[in-house]
Amino acid sequence: MMFEFEQCLREFEAECVRLDEEARAFLGSDPNLPRFVLGKNEQARWCIRNRSVRGVVDDRAAPGDEWEGCAVIPASALPSGAIVVNCSTSIRPISAHSRLAAIDGVRVVAYADLVRASRSVPLPEFVTAFRAD
After folding, report:
1. Tens of pLDDT, residues 59-118
2. Domains, the chain, ranges and CATH?
3. Where are the beta strands (DSSP E) in 7-116?
4. Is 68 left (phi over 0), alpha (psi -120 to 50) or beta?
5. What predicted TM-score, i.e. pTM, was given to this entire model?
6. Where are the strands (E) in 22-114, listed by range?
7. Rounded distance between C-alpha atoms, residue 30 and residue 26, angstroms
8. What residues have CB less than 8 Å from 45, skipping those under 6 apart?
């Protein structure tokens, strides 16, 4: 089997378009869109404070837990049509992203996709510090 560069490039471009659309949807103003975040850090806090986020995804949370005024729920409780922004940057962010992406009806975007979609989304501190060096 031969590697087909053109096909690979087309698939990559299509995935970039899909992620841009989902990031813009998350950043948009639709009050009915079920928005969630994965992670408990400054990026998740920004999303909660600047968008109508319904909850924080954490499979280890106890029933009734809250963070920043949002319910903390297991991934199994995500509603169909939800968009989850993966704000996880330090503990297994790729495996967490993959587990969420495997849930039927749930869309997942990385926080970096939000940054790329809008200049109003702040860069994580570690990125700003790295760029300053």
Report:
1. 898 999 999 999 999 999 999 999 999 998 776 667 888 888 899 999 999 999 999 999
2. 5-132 (3.40.50.720)
3. 35-38, 53-57, 66-67, 70-73, 83-86, 107-110
4. left
5. 0.86
6. 35-38, 53-57, 66-67, 70-73, 83-86, 107-110
7. 8
8. 68
